[in-house]
Please model this.
Amino acid sequence: MKIGIVGLGYVGLVTASVLADRGHYIVGVDIDEMKINELNSGRIPFYEPGLQELVDKNKDKLIFTKDYGELLDSQFVFITVSTPTVNGKIYLDNVFSAATSLSKINKDSVIVIKSTVIPGTSRKIKKMLNREVLVNPEFLKEGSAIMDTIKPDRIIIGGDSEETIKFLEDLWSFTNSPIIRTSMEEAEMIKYAANSFLAVKISFINEIANLCEKIPNCDVNVIAKAIGMDKRISPYFLNAGLGFGGSCFPKDTAAITSFARDLGERLKIVEAAIEVNNERPFRAVKMMEELIGELKGKTICVLGLAFKPNTDDTRESVGLKIIRLLQEKGANILAYDPKAKVKDIKISSLDECIQYSQGIIISTEWDEFRGIEEKLRDKYVVDGRRVLNYKLLDRNKFRAIGLGE
Ligand SMILES: NC(=O)c1ccc[n+]([C@@H]2O[C@H](COP(=O)([O-])OP(=O)(O)OC[C@H]3O[C@@H](n4cnc5c(N)ncnc54)[C@H](O)[C@@H]3O)[C@@H](O)[C@H]2O)c1
Model:
């Protein structure tokens, strides 16, 4: 089939390369000219494990262009553009602008909304375009995006027409994943309910971690492991740390809570999860202050700028928030990340960072930060992601999230 993908970010490019690998011809459209040029010169504009190889392997089936006209005669066009939150509310202009551009191409293409949009958005697009629109929310995780697309836990397809839904089911049948048919609004809502629930789980264990820090001989990791063995709870998303970041949880929880308020409802648990999460960077900085005293003039190194390991995505990264807080307090900053680069922040090597700093805050759980206890001797350390073995460190110079004295 000929398939269009509009918006070539993490979701769009991964979807494009996986579908190309299944033998489809893909036209990828983006308004970002630099991105298109980079893709056409064979480079992936961000880091995602295995993606460069998959794009290289299928380059004869992938076209990257700014021209919506190239989408003509596509059987499906997926909208995978960004849907950020601006001033606490979802910003839908990218989606509507993509839909407007699509209104000019042939009417037979099925439009599939993969971007995360608040309930009711896709139906508005359907009315605007006067043609079949399906909602097929994306659940991939950066860092394992290709496998998540090839074998998702489930596929949600929301729509009005049985025939069109069946058409999209056939496209995804290679995944052998369970497919759930829903209304358009339910499909949109499922995505928000899923992300909100996961955000709540993270903030929940982080609050338990706060309490464990005040209790001698108490380690939140032991608590998390034990409660996670209860099938009703499950072990996933119970890692206490510096909270959630990235391009999804922060913006999606903000969007759905504000959407709920507009409808006269409050999502109080989700609002509390956001509040708990917002406190995490302050907690890391306070722990460092408790160890090292006043931060002014001290050199602190932040290990990890990506919002999580195996990605170079720094959107809503807790490492960056910590750097800003440390700078406000007059500390000198050293920073290291295996993949992420940030304008205005110099990245040193891991060894340099450790050698030339007095205090170290671990803000991303990269594997590279495991087993470095020996190098950290004589340094003040805050383990914000529980990657270190505290038994190998001097407890007078070491603090970790969720670890009581
Ligand atoms: N990143 C994730 O892990 C993830 C997971 C699940 C769902 N989502 C959702 O998928 C959507 C895309 O996320 P992403 O992380 O891939 O975004 P991204 O920011 O990495 O990429 C979005 C792309 O869309 C392009 N774009 C914006 N407006 C456009 C337009 N009118 N026409 C063509 N291109 C346009 C941008 O230039 C950019 O390249 C969002 O709604 C997000 O919430 C993301």
The pocket of nicotinamide-adenine-dinucleotide is lined by residues 6-12, 29-32, 35, 80-83, 94, 97-98, 115-116, 138, 140, 142, 247-248 (CB under 6 Å). The chain is about 40% helix and 15% strand. The radius of gyration is 23 Å.
